[in-house]
Amino acid sequence: NWTTGNVIDEQVAAIRELVGDKRAICGLSGGVDSAVAAALVQKAIGSQLTCVYVDHGLMRKGETEQVEKDFVAATGVQLKVVDAEERFLKALAGVSDPEQKRKIIGREFIRVFEQAQAEIIADEGPAVEFLVQGTLYPDVVESGGGTGTANIKSHHNVGGLPEDLEFKLIEPLRKLFKDEVRMVGQELGLPEEIVHRQPFPGPGLGIRIVGEVTKERLDLLREADAIAREELTAAGLDRDIWQCPVVLLADVRSVGVQGDGRTYGHPIVLRPVSSEDAMTADWSRLPYDVLAKISTRITNEVSDVNRVVLDVTSKPPGTIEWE
Ligand code: XMP
C-alpha cells in the first residue's frame, strides 16, 4: 500500500540503520531528485549529512540562489557551495561537439566534487562512508542499469561515477517515478519551486547552446530562458508541460529587421514537450498567444536574438534536449 508517508518512514528508518554514526555526503544539482533525496537523508541523519553544490555556471537564472537560500532554509541542511564557473568555462572553451561537452562537464564535475569531498572528509568527525544519489527509476532504465537498454546519451548522474568509487551508495528514490518523488518532496516540506521544478539536465545550459559555450552566450540564453519560464508560469502551463528547453543556435545567424534597420542575430528554439517519463515525448501544443508573447519578449529584450522558432518534433525521433 503505497503512500508518501510510508515511503518516507521506511527510507528514514533504513537510512538511519545503514549509516549508523558515520557521515554521508550528497551532491545537489538544483533539481527535484537530488533535493528530495537530500531532504530525506537529512531527515534521517541530520548533521551527519553534508551537501555539496557545484556551481558550474551553466545553471538558469536564479537557480543557484534557490539552492543556497530556499533549500537550506527549508531543510536546515549543511551545504558547501563551490563556485567553479571559471573552471568549467575554461574546460569548455573551443568545444562544440555535444558528446565532447557532456564528457568535459561530467569530468570536471566529478573532479570538483571529489575535491569538495576530500575537504569534507578531512574535517574533524566520523568517517564519510556514504554518498547519496537522487537516481530515479527511469534513470536506472535509460542508462542501461535496469533492463540492458542501450545508453543513448551519457547521463552523468548514473554512468559517470568514478570506477574506484569508495563510497557506499544511498539511493532512496531508485524505485520511484518523478511524480512520486514530487509527492515525497511536498510531504517533506520542500519549497514549491523546487518540488515542481521541471527536469533540467545535469550538464545544464551547456547542452542548450548549439556551438561553443561562452559566458556571453550563457548570459544571453539565461535571459531568454527566464522569459520563457516566466510566461509559461504566468499562463498557468507549468503543470501541463513536462519541460521546455530553450536552446540557443549560436552557430546560426539569420537576417532580420528591427528598429532602425537590419539585424543579423541568432535564433532561439523553444522545445516544449509533454511526457510521462522522458523516455518518449510529444511536442506541446502551446496556445498561440503564449508563444507570441514569448517570441515578442525574447526578440525585444534579448540582444543578438532576432528570431524565435518552435520545435515540433516528438521523441522519438528527436530527443528532448538538442544535444
Ligand atoms: P533526452 O534529451 O535524452 O532527455 O530526451 C531525457 C530527459 O533527461 C534529461 N537529461 C539529463 N538529465 N543528466 C541529467 O540529469 C543528463 O546528462 C541529461 N541529459 C538529458 C532531459 O532534460 C530530459 O528531461
Automatic annotation (TrEMBL):
It catalyses: XMP + L-glutamine + ATP + H2O = GMP + L-glutamate + AMP + diphosphate + 2 H(+). Pathway: Purine metabolism; GMP biosynthesis; GMP from XMP (L-Gln route): step 1/1. The keyword GTP-binding does not apply. Its EC number is 6.3.5.2. Residues 2-197 form the GMPS ATP-PPase domain. Keywords: ATP-binding, Glutamine amidotransferase, GMP biosynthesis, Ligase, Nucleotide-binding, Purine biosynthesis. ATP binds at residues 29-35. It is an enzyme of class 6 (ligase). Homodimer. Catalyzes the synthesis of GMP from XMP. This is GMP synthase [glutamine-hydrolyzing]. It comes from Streptomyces prasinosporus. The lineage of its organism: Bacteria, Bacillati, Actinomycetota, Actinomycetes, Kitasatosporales. The gene is guaA_2.
